[in-house]
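INFO  loader      accepted 1 record
INFO  loader      residues=425
INFO  predictor   begin
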Amino acid sequence: SRGGGHPAGHPHPAGGSGAKSSATVSRNLNRFSTFVKSGGEAFVLGEASGFVKDGDKLCVVLGPRGPEWQENPYPFQCSIEDPTKQTKFKGMKSYIAYKLVPSHTGQQVHRRYKHFDWLYGRLAEKFPVISVPHLPEKQATGRFEEDFISKRRKGLAWWMDHMCSHPVLAQCDAFQHFLTCPSTDEKAWKQGKRKAEKDEMVGANFFLTISVPTGPGAVLDLQEVESQVDGFKAFTKKMDESALQLNHTANEFARKQVTGFKKEYQKVGHSFKCLSQAFELDQQAFSAGLNQAIAFTAEAYDTIGDLFADQPRQDLDPVMDLLALYQGHLANFPDIIHVQKGALTKVKESKRHVEEGKMELQKAEGIQERCNIISFATLAEINHFHKIRVRDFKSQMQHFLQQQILFFQKVTQKLEEALHKYDSV
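INFO  predictor   done
INFO  writer      dumping tokens
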């Protein structure tokens, strides 16, 4: 969607005129390529025009690790609390609504999954080089089962955390409307929704809203950008493979604990119980203490079996929830990288055209300048991804190990209790 006849509010030179520019940079013939669909190509070729309001500006700054999105000056969080079943059409149709409480307003609103879905669609279309986190998958059948609802709530909580942590997504109008529009005000909801759907700063025009550092150090070295992006591409491929592997292993391990381990421990418990029952046939008073102690040991093993079955909920499931969220991000990056690569290709092409005298230098410089903007945004996004990844995996691994330690402490405690039963035999 290219803005119509708005005054061009961007400083990009339109490129030279005259006979020379008849050999323009060739257009990408694959109309379905992400570079074309995202509007990246139109932007690089200088065809995007729209008036950028101050409120729409997105700043990339140079941080210690290179380009970064400018931090949100007013950070906030948003909790997603117990979903409730609600009905409409006098009870004919029921649905689940989640209670959202954003910390910056403190006002609770209720949103359905379809509202999340709408928002996701808008943002994925608007931001070609930002990884909009995927929503936990839609499930139509049995969608009111307790387990499914609590699992989806946890998935949405991770999603919400990633939205609030992203300097650009957190401040975007559609997301703010989603967080703050009162649930009861149907009219206001529809107005905000229409406004977001009519947003012109999407696709190619999104790049017009990005302001990048200026000055001597502010033009990125193309070769360096290319090698950083290639490095990141290799990283995401490897991370995707290992996340898949870990998810599979954790899933298997959880399944074994819930069924296998529980059964095996309870078998051991059952065998001890049979032993104590056999011993009870001896009516001697002095053997009663031993029989009770063995029966207690049997119960301890039974309990340990249950502990194993309950454990994955505490430690493995949260790890798998996190992996699911990251697999969504990793699925977004090939497209983002593709837009960046497309821009670099156009720059190389234009340089060649200048050397062959087929293009004005000014026009080629415009292409390079616009590619520079895409590079800044892409590197800022890559930086953000790594920052959040380190934060998330650190806290999740700590949680996992703390839960494992608590679990084995419970097991040890049970065994110690059983051991003490033999003291007085």
